Amino acid sequence: MAGHSKFKNIMYRKGAQDKKRSGLFSKLSREITVAAKMGDPDPENNPRLRLAVSTARAQSMPKDNIQRAIQKAIGGDAENYEEMRYEGYGPGGVGVIVDALTDNRNRTASDVRTIFAKAGGNLGESGSVGFMFDRVGEIEFAADVADADAMFEAALDAGADEVESDEDGHAVYTDAGDLHAVLDALSRVLGAEPTAAKLIFKAKEPLEMDVAGAQKLMKLIENLEDNDDVQTVYGNYAIPDDVMEKLAE
After folding, report:
1. What are the two backbone dihedrals, phi and then psi, of residue 229, each rounded to the nearest 5 degrees?
2. How far apart are alpha carbons 133 and 203 in whole angstroms?
């Protein structure tokens, strides 16, 4: 992945997300509430809730907001959200997976289909692009936690499968079933908390984007992420650093 910094991709999109932090907190709260409602409201006994809380903390979500989201589930006054997954093709034939939590599946499906169509893409059937991805665990650490060699050794000792490091940070990938064990081991050895830890869809063979294609794709992703019901968007694309720099101009 040299020349295709995962973190520069993240930083570009994070700039837009930071301007909509209240919307981001709303999505994080929804995931926390759903996780707490589906299992034990104690994060220590609920892996999904623990990851949701960890992600919320990494995004500087206030502790009171986190507790309020958990209390909604405990109190029984939380909305009934359904987990939905949509698959389709974006500009340049990029495969896109959209995870959503919705209280109205017809509304969300219609919204997502419209966003794809306006971007020149199309929503497909379930499984239409899923084969392009692997379901894996991803743990991110800040760059100053360790140098690349130390992170590589620590991650492999903890049971990770792959590590990507650059000047912006470290991304550790694990088998989906090993995420929690690797997360606990790495945090203990490094003496630091991750900036993110979650299950993701990792592209098997990312498609490299040029400036024009990347602009259209980023617009599609931003419009999807603007939707209140959409939690996460994945795509099998790679944007070279020089293209990312042009996008940021």
Report:
1. -85, -20
2. 4
CA distances to 7, 15, 55, 223, 230 from 164, in Å: 10, 22, 20, 28, 27
CA–CA distance from 228 to each of 24, 64, 190 (Å)? 9, 21, 36
Nearest residue to 232 (alpha-carbon basis) of 79, 55, 103: 55
- Measured CA to CA, the distance from residue 181 to residue 184 in angstroms comes to 5
- Angle, vertex CA 190, rays to CA 65 and CA 231, nearest 5: 35
What domains lie within the chain, and their CATH numbers? 6-75 (1.10.10.200)
For the segment 18-56, what is each residue's pLDDT rounded down to a tens digit? 555 667 888 999 999 999 988 889 988 888 898 899 888
Would you call 10 helix, strand, or coil by DSSP? helix
Residue-wise pLDDT for 235-246, tens only, equals 999 988 888 888
CB atoms within 10 A of CB 244: 19
Q: Give SS3 for 141.
A: strand
The beta-strand segments (E) located in the chain are 82-89, 95-102, 122-123, 133-141, 162-166, 169-175, 196-203, 207-208, 230-235, 237-238
CB atoms within 10 A of CB 67: 12
Neighbouring C-alpha atoms within 13 Å toward the C-beta of 225: 23
* Residues sharing a CB contact under 8 Å with residue 70, sequence separation 6 or more, in sequence order: 32, 33, 36, 41, 49
Strands 207-208 and 237-238: parallel
**pTM: predicted TM-score of the whole model, two decimal places:** 0.85
CA distance 171 to 164: 5
